[in-house]
Design goal:
5 strands; about 170 residues; alpha/beta; Rossmann fold
Length: about 170
């Protein structure tokens, strides 16, 4: 048996509108499973994001720059193409996704099947959200912030400030 080290690139995609501590927890975990991780910030105009693609990219990049315990080099890149095409373009062998609840599973199950048909060479890898972050979603964080609630527990200070500036009451 020969030892053939292989450089593994993975992608963790998302809209990140905004990036949450749950996202950051999964990014840290996925960075331990590959040699190079690309956090891919989706354009996704269909979701009508609160923040522009550039703003979301910058928030994620800023949070990753200060992240401790990274397992590998982490790069943040925006994308507006089909995810499997983006993965192929950057040489990724796997796409990481987080699961919080059964409702996530149903959507991800369909996504996995479609991606396998589009490009069977790219593996979908699912990680369960930790107990601490299972209930946190960017949508809920925006709603809490928009209604004047405190979101500092769910996002970093720089993201909380941007939310406050955008939707604060």
């Amino acid at each position: 048996m020969t030892n053939n080290p292989k450089h593994r690139t993975g992608i963790y995609p998302g809209t990140f509108d905004p990036v949450t501590r749950g996202h950051l927890h999964l990014i840290r975990r996925t960075s331990r499973l590959v040699d190079h991780l690309i956090v891919a910030v989706a354009d996704n105009p269909g979701k009508s994001p609160l923040f522009s693609l550039e703003e979301r990219h910058d928030m994620v990049r800023n949070d990753i720059e200060t992240m401790e315990d990274k397992g590998c080099e982490i790069e943040v890149r925006p994308f507006s193409t089909l995810l499997v095409n983006f993965a192929k373009d950057v040489g990724a062998s796997c796409i990481f996704r987080g699961l919080r609840a059964v409702s996530d599973f149903e959507y991800e199950f369909q996504l996995s099947g479609m991606n396998a048909k589009l490009d069977p060479s790219i593996e979908m890898v699912y990680l369960m959200a930790s107990d601490e972050w299972q209930f946190v979603s960017a949508s809920m964080v925006k709603e809490v912030a928009g209604l004047g609630g405190e979101v500092g527990e769910f996002v970093t200070p720089q993201v909380a400030e941007k939310l406050q500036d955008r939707v604060g009451k």
